[in-house]
Amino acid sequence: MELLSKATNTVKDNAEKEAKHQGRREGMAKVKKEDKFKLNAKTIAQIGMLSAISAILMLFEIPLWFAPSFYQIDLSELPILIGGFALGPVAGVIIELVKNLLKMAIGGTSTGGVGEFANFLIGCSFVLPSAIYYRRHRSKKGAAISMALGTISMAILGGFLNAYVLLPFYSKAYGLPLEALIEMGTAVNSSITNLTTFVMLAVVPFNLLKGFIVSVITALIYKKIREILH
Questions:
Q1: pTM for the whole thing?
Q2: Mean pLDDT across the stretch 28-55?
Q3: Per-domain residue ranges for the chain?
């Protein structure tokens, strides 16, 4: 009888373990199904709404004490990051693209689209790593890590694009020597003496601060916004 009881208990334990594993598999399958990007009428409306909010936020810029006046921070990445978290990385990229297209349509462009294209790339460098990591780690810790990764990625790519694309382009477009732009940085920070220090002491901190602010606000409001989107 004792052997029969042990055998029964073993079978019962195995059945419970299998049920738990099955539940986990079904849960993971459900998450994957929910995460699959679907471009339907609802998603298009959500993308349009978030893109419009992002384009509007892009108009409100705040100057910073450690960077030249042409570096002004805005919160246009906030709706994009929320969209990337709630709707997936692909949606985040689309919102980033539409934001810049709306910006050009509303206010035009003084850079022939170069500035907007760079803004698109830098924005994607923030939202893509964040949304991809969060998609696989849906927790408070996962969200914190994802936004940290996105912020670091944006700081690196932003520094690279400013050094090798944007600053040289603006120098030629406005007929200013690159040294004149660097001197604008020196005026607010005497430690800025060349292109390298300009990037390290103005551009990189600018993107780190922007990523930090957007991340903190996202952490505070995302849960409520997600309920509205879903």
A1: 0.81
A2: 77
A3: 1-35, 37-229
